Amino acid sequence: MTDTFEQSLSHSYLNGANANFIEALYEKYLADPDAVEPRWRDYFRDLEALDPQSGRDIPHSPIREAFEEIGRSSRRGRAQSASDGMDAMAAQKQAAVLRLINAYRVRGHQHADTDPLHLRERPQVPDLDPAFHGLTDADLDTAFNTGSLAAPDRLTLREIIDLVQRVYAGKIGSEYMHITDTAQKRWIQERLEKPLARPQLSSDEKKALLNRLTAAEGIEKYLNSKYVGQKRFSLEGGEATIPILDELVQRGGRDGVEEMVLGMAHRGRLNVLINIMGKSPGELFAEFEGEHAPEHASAGDVKYHMGYSSDIDTPGGPLHLALAFNPSHLEIVNPVVEGSARARMHRHNDDDGHSVLPVLIHGDAAMAGQGVVMETLQLSQARGFYTGGTVHLVINNQIGFTTSNPLDTRSTFYCTEVAKMVQAPIFHVNGDDPEAVLFVTQLAMDYRREFHSDVVIDLICYRRHGHNEADEPSATQPMMYQKIKARPSVRKLYADQLTEEGVIDRDGARAMEREYRDELDAAHVVAPGALEEQDNEFTVDWSPYFDATWDEPVDTTMPVDRIRSLQEKLQWLPEGFELNPRVASVMESRRKMAAGALAMDWGFAEIMAYAGLLEEGHSVRLTGQDSGRGTFFHRNSVLHNAADGSTHTPLKMIPEDRDNFVVIDSLLSEEAVLGFEYGYATADPETMVIWEAQFGDFSNGAQVLIDQFIASGETKWGRLCGLTLYLPHGYEGQGPEHSSARIERFLQLCAEQNIQVCVPSTPAQFFHMIRRQMLRHWRKPLVVMTPKSLLRHKLSTSVLDDLSGGSFKVVIDDTEGVRPSSVQRVVLCSGKVYYDLLEERRRQERSDVALIRIEQLYPFPEAQLSALLKRRYKTVKSVVWCQEEPKNQGAWYQVYHHLTQCITRDQKLTYAGRDPLASPAVGYAKVHYEQQRRLVADALGKIHG
């Protein structure tokens, strides 16, 4: 670079006059270095940071800020004249300072003192060293512009370094520079840098903080002494969790949150129940002594899986707290909490999460290792699943199971890296600094309120005992537990700090411990602000649903005039709305079906069932990967304008004053989406909540939800749920992965009338089944084996009179008018195979075989089937169960014991179907069709002369 060029710089942009020009030129350089003159290219290259890991945007930021700050200085009238301007070296130093500030914002967290045990060696971060940027000790007392730093306009380098180290490399490590929204980044910067990342607490606030730590430690000591050796999954080492949750509740209530839904695994759960939720210590003690069972549950669950709900007094009024039940599958509760929160938002008419707040408490190894965490984060901003932002708290014990090596639990430095995918800010905080913890909690809550986005608090602490209280952690983690055993508790450390500050004396600190223990001895509720149960307009009364029965009589019919009126509303289109020709054909067919001029198909019956429920005041929520249109182009509940791509959802017009129909084409997730819908259904008994698999076997990806929540939630926890699952099922030669919805797995889970498993075979049956699910008071999950080819099968149709009359039939007798006296064989079946049997029987012109459909496989309709077999067909000797699935799959082995109760002594029960197979179905079309032909032939048997 020539002297002439240096002189031109010192007399141009350095006085702020040409800042915009320089900025534009630099932008041009970033896009293409060869597009600017060589002397400018050399100059900009000299200013850039040399750290290859930082990416080009990192050096650009401080340079841009330097130009902006010089421009601001000029406008404030403090700009130097051209002749007095800084020389090029001074400009380089200024840019270096801004790069250093930026480096601390980006990477200061790597040097932060966030680990109370100091287990990991502090990594080498070259760009946190002033020398890396060309700054020396000689520059320490030189004043520089501070750029966008929330500080005075000019500080010495020494002061700047001191400030950024305290803010970004103290007890809090902040990660937020990955956020692309400038307003969000600026907001965080100001909140971190202005108060120097440290709350200014009064003496009373410090005492209150100590009091919460005393409670967190006190319950653990009490349980350890009273119930020696019993599992409780202690919070010891992470006691700062309790002040965090207390602040979330109180600050949330102050800011308008009326309901808070919490999800957490077992670590610290008992502590939270007692010290936050307000559960009676006496009730907990009874659980330890095996004398307490949850209401409405028959089998119960271990105490550290149980949920709870309560009301807490806050500065903004009562706040309802709901802690979700959760099995030992740790993070699986995450989507359940989000779904419950969304249902509550619907009740509050709350679109942005102002009134309802979800809070998820993670373990460090679980957050990093379990895929449902990622899936749930992916829901956070998705239409139909948005809950206004979740506060995530990681109780980071720095270890997974006791025997785990922390280096084996993840590939990333932090367990929270996954949260960056949704650009959530992450605040790592030392769990042994309660005041830093409190500040981070306030920051997180304020960020969520301001931006309605997820935010993460990573509470870095430790686990004083092993995985459970019977574990011996030092056998496999000797070095970690040497440090833990030598370390005083956070409560002790903070009490000593306050004693030194003169806030409290040692007698006062000991008195806190005694008072808390006395309250436990008296079995008093110890959670601050705990209230008696509060009823308000948003409270759901579940009592009508507890004593209902599955066979409760209910009228599911709809008069023909009403059907036609609703269909007319559904035909309305906005002005200028142009339908795709194929969709237009579907709509025209539905118009004819309503007029009685065309046989009714499944799509019409389904849409009409929803329309009736909506008109009657219920809500309908349907999600799945292709639910708007329907995987098989059968539903078309969302219409797309062929001209401009806009959409119209006819069902949203019924009724016109309430938006009670939601249909969402969900993200490519089964586990998180099904968990979300389960959580929604457990919080709202008056919404028809439906999850639809694209193909039935895709529910495999959500098996944990099915096993641990849907099938067993009522038995373990007394938790009712009316969730409906649509699982397309049927053997049509599409191979192993698109044939079976694994009906055998659902039937294996059936007991105590916990779920319903139905296989409707006509549109009218589907219609009545849907309406029955909502119009009864019986709130149990409904698993439906929905059709594929039957959606357009010429024989699988209904007429309007089937909707205006009748009901859902759990068993359907032969409808071809066979005479019982002529029948030699009765074939029992479910689903599509009925039509294969029917067509073959017609082809053979058989009258000696009766076909009976079992439309509800559980609760099994023994009474109805027995009446047919023991009365109407009592002379028949041969009863056959026919199924498409291999013998070791399908319903055969799960309904066999029911079938034997339904036949007479003289009747012989046999099987007709595919042979046992390890795979759900063959992958070769010719083999499939030959198997299908053979099983139909076996079921019908030989023609009797």
From TrEMBL:
<dbReference type="Pfam" id="PF02779">
    <property type="entry name" value="Transket_pyr"/>
</dbReference>
<dbReference type="InterPro" id="IPR005475">
    <property type="entry name" value="Transketolase-like_Pyr-bd"/>
</dbReference>
<dbReference type="InterPro" id="IPR031717">
    <property type="entry name" value="ODO-1/KGD_C"/>
</dbReference>
<dbReference type="InterPro" id="IPR042179">
    <property type="entry name" value="KGD_C_sf"/>
</dbReference>
<dbReference type="InterPro" id="IPR029061">
    <property type="entry name" value="THDP-binding"/>
</dbReference>
<keyword id="KW-0786">Thiamine pyrophosphate</keyword>
<comment type="similarity">
    <text>Belongs to the alpha-ketoglutarate dehydrogenase family.</text>
</comment>
<dbReference type="Pfam" id="PF16078">
    <property type="entry name" value="2-oxogl_dehyd_N"/>
</dbReference>
<dbReference type="GO" id="GO:0045252">
    <property type="term" value="C:oxoglutarate dehydrogenase complex"/>
</dbReference>
<dbReference type="InterPro" id="IPR001017">
    <property type="entry name" value="DH_E1"/>
</dbReference>
<dbReference type="GO" id="GO:0030976">
    <property type="term" value="F:thiamine pyrophosphate binding"/>
</dbReference>
<keyword id="KW-0560">Oxidoreductase</keyword>
<dbReference type="Pfam" id="PF16870">
    <property type="entry name" value="OxoGdeHyase_C"/>
</dbReference>
<dbReference type="InterPro" id="IPR011603">
    <property type="entry name" value="2oxoglutarate_DH_E1"/>
</dbReference>
<dbReference type="GO" id="GO:0005829">
    <property type="term" value="C:cytosol"/>
</dbReference>
<dbReference type="InterPro" id="IPR032106">
    <property type="entry name" value="2-oxogl_dehyd_N"/>
</dbReference>
<dbReference type="Pfam" id="PF00676">
    <property type="entry name" value="E1_dh"/>
</dbReference>
<protein>
    <recommendedName>
        <fullName>2-oxoglutarate dehydrogenase E1 component</fullName>
        <ecNumber>1.2.4.2</ecNumber>
    </recommendedName>
</protein>
<dbReference type="GO" id="GO:0006099">
    <property type="term" value="P:tricarboxylic acid cycle"/>
</dbReference>
<feature type="domain" description="Transketolase-like pyrimidine-binding">
    <location>
        <begin position="600"/>
        <end position="793"/>
    </location>
</feature>
<comment type="function">
    <text>E1 component of the 2-oxoglutarate dehydrogenase (OGDH) complex which catalyzes the decarboxylation of 2-oxoglutarate, the first step in the conversion of 2-oxoglutarate to succinyl-CoA and CO(2).</text>
</comment>
<dbReference type="GO" id="GO:0004591">
    <property type="term" value="F:oxoglutarate dehydrogenase (succinyl-transferring) activity"/>
</dbReference>
